[in-house]
Design brief:
alpha+beta; 6 helices; binds heme C; about 55% helix; 4 strands; single chain; Beta-Lactamase; four-stranded antiparallel sheet
Length: about 190
């Protein structure tokens, strides 16, 4: 008798947690809560580095800090967190996969229609051969402070150009104007 009640209670409990785990709105909210401070902290680190050492030394900061912050967040949360783009500077970490490319195109179209950068996000639960994965992409829009490293050729100081050419000989991540979609912060969670 007791066992039955306990089993029923356990089943009900696991049904509730399974539901909560797979609820798209909850997953989205959790991702947003992690993505916003991450992007804010990264922009601040960037600004600080540019102010303290000039954009040239900030290239090094960016090279080390951004991937380090993303892998720290991944470890803490048990998710896969990366920054991705269609025109990458670092192809190893930054190349968007098929789902991310589709999401970036959608966000580009939404941005063109006048949507605010703050609300640009795409989320979906994807079923694959290896089970269900929650996919999330938060749009990253170029700000004026980014042009010294991602802007048009004439906006990038010579020293930065030299540093980028040395560190990223296959760099594609230039030519952007403020307001354009630079890429996205991608989160993947196995469900
Ligand atoms: C001081 C130079 C510098 C500034 C300023 C800068 N970035 Fe970057 N950015 C980089 C470097 C270097 C990388 C490659 C990092 C790596 O190796 O993962 C990068 C990579 C990225 C990526 C990952 C995709 C890719 O191309 O590899 C995104 C997204 C990005 N930057 C957005 C921004 C935004 C938005 C701003 C402004 C808020 C900004 N960056 C300002 C140097 C800079």
């Amino acid at each position: 008798m007791h066992t039955k009640i306990i089993t029923a209670a356990l089943l009900a409990f696991s049904a509730v947690t399974a539901y909560a785990d797979n609820n798209l709105d909850t997953l989205k909210e959790e991702s947003r809560t992690a993505a916003m401070p991450f992007l804010k902290a990264l922009a601040e680190e960037n600004k600080k580095a540019v102010q303290e050492g000039g954009p040239e030394s900030a290239v090094k900061v960016c090279k080390d800090i951004a991937p380090k912050m993303a892998s720290e967040l991944s470890r803490q949360k048990g998710w896969k967190v990366t920054r991705v783009s269609m025109k990458v500077r670092n192809p190893m970490i930054g190349t968007a996969d098929a789902w991310e490319q589709k999401a970036l195109k959608k966000m580009e179209a939404r941005l063109a229609k006048g949507e605010k950068p703050e609300t640009l996000e795409v989320a979906e639960i994807v079923k694959g051969a290896d089970g269900k994965t929650f996919r999330y992409l938060k749009g990253i829009v170029l700000q004026p402070g980014c042009v010294s490293c991602h802007g048009k050729s004439e906006e990038i100081p010579e020293a930065v150009k030299a540093s980028l050419a040395a560190e990223y000989p296959h760099d594609q991540a230039t030519g952007y104007a403020p307001g354009q979609l630079r890429g996205g912060l991608s989160i993947q969670r196995k469900l």
